[in-house]
Amino acid sequence: MPAFAADNPADNPYEEPRSGRLAAWGNALLTGHTSPDHAATAVAGADDSHRVTGLPGDADGELHGLTWALGRLRVLGATGLRLALPVSGHPLGLTGPAGFNDAAMVAGEAVLAVGLPIGFVPEVEVYGPAGDQGVRVLWRCSAVNDAPPADVPSLDEAERELADGLRETTLMLTKLDVAGAGPQALRALDQWRRRGHTELLAPGYPPRAVRVLESARQISALLWIALGHGDGAAVSATEMAARREVLAPLGRTTRRAKAAAYNALVDERG
Questions:
Q1: Which residues contact 155 (CB under 8 A, 6 or more apart)?
Q2: 94 HSE (CA, 13 A, CB side)
């Protein structure tokens, strides 16, 4: 089993993966719960721009804005979007081929269309001087295999796994002295907790999906701190390796739960 991917951006509990936003708000649009403009604005978030390239029928290098691209997906027959959160050794949510999977592994995230064998991987460009940086995102679309996504549980399974995994790991988290991570990390965790439910998912999602995603993100925050992020207490390389080994199963469980939550609007309807 692979180690918990502490350096994977999709595992950062304080940031929603861009592919999660695209899946959630794309699903809200495709199921009639929001408008194209609202969906595109929500997907872009604080980024300066999002563009899409490689849609079926596109000329080489042709670029589209999110509003147009989401509308095009509906015309092409897409009925939903599914989130993939792969890491090395765990291609969670992917279907192949190898080229698409490799790009998704590098990004740590991807989106696959339902009803249309295509997928999207984000390329993120950070530009500008320190303190005044902007972000541009290019979504590269390419063909994917029409096959079941790898290792994504149902919402029921994800909820049970989270409860079981947290019970089994709580004692170990205590032994690892998560509270010793330092004031900066704990302040960040407290600020995230105060955000509540308002930033999770999109209109049309069942409340249980919101609950599962919130639980998964809370557990991710504990894992993030336990693995030495923020101004955490110094630990030796041997101690950190032990932490990674102990926490790896729960890291895998939280990624599976996040994927199940973001995919719930498609899966529950199906």
A1: 206, 208, 209, 212, 260, 261, 264, 267, 268
A2: 26
Helix 155-175 vs helix 237-262: crossing angle, to nearest 10: 160
Expressed in angstroms, the distance from the first to the final Cα of the chain is 31
Q: How many degrees, rounded to 5, is the angle at CA 245 between CA 242 and CA 246?
A: 85
Contact 254, 13 (CB under 8 A): no
Using an 8 Å Cβ cutoff, are 51 and 137 in contact? yes
Measured CA angle at 221 (ends 219, 227), to 5 deg: 105
Is 116 within 8 Å of 72 (Cβ atoms)?
A: no
Q: Is the dihedral of CA 30, 121, 3, 199 positive or negative?
A: negative
Comparing CA positions, the residue from 124, 39, 107, 109 lying closest to residue 73 is 39
Residue in 30, 29, 48, 49 with CA at minimum distance from that of residue 39: 29
Pick the closest to residue 46 from 110, 136, 138, 139 (CA basis): 136
CA 44 to chain centre: 15
Cis ω for the linkage preceding 117 (within 30 of 0): no
* 36-93 tens-digit pLDDT: 999 999 999 999 999 999 999 999 999 999 999 999 999 999 999 999 999 999 999 9
* pLDDT tens per residue, range 225-250: 777 654 445 567 777 777 777 778 88
Question: Using CA atoms, how far apart are residues 190 and 175, in angstroms rounded to an integer?
Answer: 21
Torsion, Cα of 37, 43, 49, 50 (10° steps):
-100
